[in-house]
Write a structure and sequence with these properties.
Number of helices: 18
Oligomer: single chain
Shape: globular
Order of helices and strands: HHEEEHEHEHEHHEHEHHHEHHHHEHHH
Helix content: 25-40%
Radius of gyration: 25 Å
Length: about 450
């Protein structure tokens, strides 16, 4: 698109193009930093203060989420904005991004900004534009709200450092789980180039913590940490490979979040999968559940999956699936188990486990108490005892528990994804069904 046409394009046209171009980037979050305004500027950043809305596919949109430009010198096969695509192109100026952010904020539409970008000319040129935008927004417009900005792989280290002192969170997209996938679908990018700014941001954050310990008023560098995104389903990696990569990123780079984006086929290319069933949203959901287990529940990737069993069960969440495969560790006695053992019980989360540990100091807990503490008993009852007794006379049998855990909503027709759904009516006669009802003490 010529410069003259770009100049004639009004701001709302640019906004329409560049918000639509940003919709496939899910690596944004509004949480992670508390910072009050000083009374001189506009806005503040509160960890839970961002207003959220939801797109039609269920994705959370919490910020003014835009690309600085959808011009790009790269030709990634999975990307709508690749240089070989014939799509409308637009670029903001730093002043335009500032005006948009301030006007949307004044109207109470947003409480922060997520700013990403295609690669315009080269990484340094693009990173310089992003830095200028944040500098104007912070120093000239006195915007003190939340800002999440992308660090451009290959950009000069000093540019990334200067930008990090103006942003609350930075992210570097891993793009694809493995270097082999990257070579296949994004040959202009390399794993080394992507990981280098991740390490740089991590090291600078560590240095900044030491500076803040000595000088309380020192500027903060990326106080909400860094995150990344992986596209799921564009390349043939297993769930085990993806979860292992995420675990490694958390340990080596101390990331706050790894985001998983179900692959949406926006380009026709022989090297891209067909996806007859649409984007793998259920797989994305299972990966997020597993990610939660890695970050908060003390699980490791090798516990959830293995080379022999590389993918998650489509019917059960990863925690229930793990519990069914490790019945030798159950039932767990609620009044004696430690906090980390409680976390492994399906139906018990971090808050309910904390409440159990606190409450049992004063009394012996019963099943009716657990419900008040937030335990999901319809899952937990198969795996726990209170004072040595189970809630109902249930069996520690994998098939039996599986049949009862699968709600009607979760059941699928026979043959989907190689699984055969068990139902009382297909696989058992009515006499067997009556036996199960009497053993369980409730209608199955």
């Amino acid at each position: 698109m010529s410069l003259r046409i770009q100049e004639e394009m009004d701001l709302m046209e640019k906004l329409e193009i560049l918000t639509d171009a940003a919709k496939y980037d899910v690596a944004c979050t509004s949480s992670g930093v508390d910072r009050n305004g000083d009374g001189k500027g506009m806005g503040n950043s509160v960890a839970k203060g961002i207003c959220h809305s939801f797109a039609s596919d269920g994705r959370c949109i919490s910020l003014l989420k835009i690309l600085f430009t959808n011009e790009c010198v790269f030709d990634c096969k999975y990307c709508l904005n690749r240089c070989s695509n014939d799509v409308p192109r637009a670029s903001f100026t730093p002043e335009e991004v500032c005006r948009l952010t301030m006007e949307f904020y004044r109207r109470n539409y947003i409480e922060g900004l997520f700013l990403s970008s295609g690669i315009l000319k080269n990484p340094d040129f693009t990173m310089e534009l992003l830095y200028q935008t944040l500098y104007k927004l912070r120093c000239e417009y006195n915007f003190q709200g939340y800002i999440h900005v992308k660090a451009i792989p290959g950009a000069d280290q000093e540019l990334i450092d200067r930008t990090g002192f103006l942003a609350d969170r930075m992210s570097v997209n891993l793009e694809l789980p493995t270097s082999e996938g990257l070579k296949k679908l994004a040959p202009h990018k390399s794993r080394k180039t992507i990981l280098a700014p991740m390490r740089q941001i991590q090291n600078r954050m560590t240095e900044n913590k030491e500076e803040l310990a000595v000088f309380r008023n020192a500027p903060k560098f990326v106080p909400a940490g860094q995150s990344t995104q992986m596209i799921i389903g564009a390349t043939p990696e297993s769930d085990y490979a993806i979860v292992s990569v995420a675990e490694s990123l958390y340990k080596k780079f101390r990331l706050k979040r790894v985001f998983y984006s179900a692959f949406v086929k926006v380009n026709e290319d022989a090297s891209l999968p067909a996806l007859p069933g649409g984007p793998p949203l259920l797989r994305e959901h299972r990966l997020y559940q597993a990610d939660w287990l890695l970050r908060f529940y003390g699980f490791e990737a090798d516990e959830l999956l293995s080379e022999k069993r590389p993918n998650f069960n489509v019917f059960l969440d990863p925690k229930c699936d793990w519990a069914l495969g490790h019945l030798e560790q159950f039932p767990v006695e609620i009044n004696r188990a430690d906090y980390y053992t409680l976390l492994r019980v399906p139906g018990i989360g971090t808050k309910s486990a904390q409440r159990i540990v606190q409450a049992r100091r004063f009394a012996c807990l019963r099943f009716e108490d657990l419900k008040k503490l937030g335990v999901v008993l319809k899952r937990a009852l198969y795996f726990i005892t209170c004072s040595g007794r189970m809630m109902y006379p249930t069996k520690l049998d994998e098939d039996y528990i599986l049949r009862n855990l699968l709600s009607e909503k979760e059941r699928k027709p026979l043959g989907i994804d190689g699984y055969r759904q068990l139902t009382l009516f297909d696989d058992f006669n009515m006499q067997a069904a009556d036996i199960i009802r009497s053993e369980c003490g409730r209608v199955v």
